[in-house]
Every structure is written in C-alpha cells, then in structure tokens.
Amino acid sequence: MPSVSIILLSILVAVVVYRWVTNQRSRRSLPPGPRPWPMIGNLPHLGSVPHHAIAGLARKYGPLMHLRLGQVDVAVAASASVAAQFLKVHDANFASRPPNSGAKHIAYNYQDLVFAPYGPRWRMLRKIVSVHLFSGKALEDFRHVRQEEVAVLIRALANAGSAVVDLGQLLNVCTVNALGRVMLGYRVFGDGSGKSDPRADEFKSMVVEVMVLAGVFNIGDFVPALEWLDLQGVAARMKKLHKRFDAFLTAILDEHKANVGKGQHNDLLSTLISLKENADGEGGKLTDTEIKALLLNMFTAGTDTSSSTVEWAIAELIRHPKILAQVQEELDRVVGRERLVSEPDLTQLSYLQAVVKETFRLHPSTPLSLPRIAAESCEVNGYHIPKGTTLLVNVWAIARDPAEWADPLEFRPERFLAGGEKAQVDIRGNDFEVIPFGAGRRICAGMSLGLRMVTLLTASLVHAFDLGLPNGLLPEKLNMDEAYGLTLQRAARLMVHPRPRLAQHLYQA
Prior knowledge:
Elements: H1 4-29, H2 50-61, E1 64-69, E2 72-77, H3 80-89, H4 101-105, H5 120-132, H6 136-141, H7 143-158, E3 165-166, H8 167-183, H9 198-215, H10 219-222, H11 234-259, H12 268-274, H13 288-301, H14 304-319, H15 321-334, H16 350-362, E4 372-373, E5 378-380, E6 383-385, E7 390-393, H17 395-398, H18 447-464, E8 465-468, E9 482-483, E10 489-490, E11 495-500
Parallel strand pairs: 2-7
Antiparallel strand pairs: 1-2, 3-11, 4-7, 5-6, 8-11, 9-10
Function: Catalyzes the 3'-hydroxylation of the flavonoid B-ring to the 3',4'-hydroxylated state. Convert naringenin to eriodictyol and dihydrokaempferol to dihydroquercetin.
EC number: 1.14.14.82
Subcellular location: Endoplasmic reticulum membrane
C-alpha cells in the first residue's frame, strides 16, 4: 500500500495542477491584452496620455481588451458595439464606481453624485439635481441667466479693443457665473463686466488641478499595499486641494444659511438647505457634507467641461475658415446682425448644431469615461468579465474609429447633416458611435445644460466676432495638442483678437 506521505503528495500535486489548469482556462477566457508586468501589471503601458496609449493597444488586441493594473482587472471598450454591450446590455451590472483616491480625498469620501455608490443615496442626489437644476422647466426658468452672462462675455470681448485675450479663461468665468447664479443666486466672480478676476483665475487653476489629479492612474489605487507610500505624491496633493475647495464651499454654505429667512431665494443651494430636514427621495436627509459635495460636482464637472469644449470648437473653426464662414452665414440669415443669438434660435441653426456635434466627437470633454465596476461576473462577446472588474470606455477612440467614421481625424460637420454618413446619430447616449456624456444609468446628469451652454456660447462668439490669431499666426499652425486629465484640456491656451461684426449697440451695457 502506498505510504501516507505519497498519498498526501499526490493530493497536493493534483490540487496544484487543478488550480493551474483552472487558472489557465480563466485567463484564456478573458479578453485579449498585453502581457502584464510583475506587481504593477500594465500600468507602464498607459504612458503620459492614457487615452492615446489605450487606443493604440486596442488597435493591436481588439476593441474589447483586458488590462491588469496592479491587482485590478480592467476591461476596456474601444468600439461602439462593445461600449453598447457594457453600457446598455450590462448597464445595471456596471452602475457603481470602483474605489479611487480622487473620490476618497477630494469628493468627500464618495458622498458626491459623481462617485457615490449606486443605490438609494445616489438616486436621491440624482433626483434632486435632475428636478431642481437640469429638468426642462428648470432650464427654461433660468434661460435668461445664461443669455445675460453670455451678453456680459460679448461686451467684455468687445471692450478688449486691440488687446489679445485668453478666450478659455473668459469662457470659464462666464460658465461659472451662469451656473453660480442658478445655484447660489449670485455671480461667483467679477463685477458683471466679464473681465478676468484674480479669484476666478485661482478657481480655474483649482478646477484644472482637480481634473489632472483625477485623471492620474494612481499606483495606490491598483496596488493597495503601496497606497500608504503615496509614491506619486497624488494623495497628498489631493488632500491639499480638497482643503482649498472645502474652505471655498464652506464659506458659501455658511453665508447662505445665515441669509435663510431674510428673503425669497430661488436658487439650488436654498433648495438643498431646505431639503436637509426633508429630502425628497428614498435616501433620507441631506447632510452639509453632501451639499458641499454636490456643489463641488457642479462647479467642477459643470463649468470647465463646457468652457473647454467651446474653446476646442472655436479653435477648430479658426483652423477651418470655410466652415466658419458657413456658420456665420447661417447665423446672419437666421438671427441677423441687429441682435444677439438667443436659445430659441439654436434649433434653427442646423449647421451650427453639426459643428457642435463634430466638436464633441473629436474633442470629448471626458476622453476616458469615469470608471465603473462589475457588481457580478458576466460575459461580453464570449469573454469572461470577472466580478470586481473596472470598466473603462475609451470615448475618444470610439469617436475616431475608422470602422465607424470616414476620415475620422478630419473636422467635418457635414457628416451630421441630412445626407451625411451619420445624419441620424445623436450625442445624448443612445448612439454609441459618439458618447461624450457617457450612456446608461451613470450618464452625465448635466448633459442638457452642457449642450445648451456649449451651443449658445459657440454661436454667440462666432456671430458677434471675427476671431483672429495673434502675431500673424496662421490658422493651420494653431497648436491643437491635448493636455491629458480627467477632462480634455488644450495644451496651449487659445489667445484671440476679437473684432466685432454686429451692430455697435449690441456691445454696450
């Protein structure tokens, strides 16, 4: 009879072989992807501009790809059909966010709307902003605010005279003040002249830093054993930035509380304060921290994304004079030169709408979607997606996929017009060839406001001004490089010389 030691050894070998075979089968059933490095996985493959690097990897390994970032499985969707599988077919399974240092250290430890786990609290926060800020009624009620702030911007640009202006900075002041008046009941920056404000400059730098830090693939998020070392210094910078934002938001909240009862307040923050004791949802009462977290979401995701997209749109139009001339001809025909553009005009400006769609296609404000996490294992296109897998949708790559778009790198608004290749394609999350706002349950809550603001600002700028480049710079030489972050910033500021083209009285207060 075999000895006990031989039996035990045989059992041990059988267990090891079984586990090896099972693991090999599991690995084979995962989507293809590059071989990971020991310990850190595929993190070195991401490079300095991850949405570019991941797009390059997808061209080699396919539109459904598996990465191993540290100890985390990551599924990448890099085509419209694969994105639809995750964000439509398996949307409910990918409704929550994975743990990440940005949500922990900046977004009040997941108490905001953007990073909150899917569930009753998230539904309550989503309902509040959807009803009180982004509903059709709310958007219409505050239409005059957006138009007034755009008019302020137009006057500021006209008053620049022969000076060259930083268009992105003035756009940011405009979007922050338009949102601030709705959320808080007053302008956050400036005196209403539209000129740059030092506090606005600082705020812009804070928002950009949020987006840069939130876009970093932090090693501590993927190798928990190394989190305490903060090897990239990301967590320390996040904590420092959070203190600055918290001081800004706490001051706003305290001031609003002090003024409650002193008059009528028709703004979101007053509504949020009233909901502290009677939240209209299934999640319970609102806390001060949740209110500040919501304000943080609105002032970051709701401002810089719009101003940056308009900056990209103007840059593309300057680089394409013939397209710009067509936009101005349409505006002059529909609106004329005796008044400024208003929101009701926008539905009649089909070519302008196509320009905005094409801008969102080539320059999506969030090039890599905010990550989601698989609540349970599932199967996509015949591949196994394990429970706990992080999902990244490469929105930037999908919108430049040559399998979906003719000459995908060209700025060609006509593709969205009647008779064009994508005439029926919308950008509101139903057509996965171009999803700048995401799709499914976690689609951007502020999509409707963002679309209105981007379209109104783009129309107003090209209608009211001929925008020249400084120092004789040729349009085709304009720097169009990207600066990577959670949002897609321009690497170089767009400096322009605005020359009024409408009736003079329109530029006066």
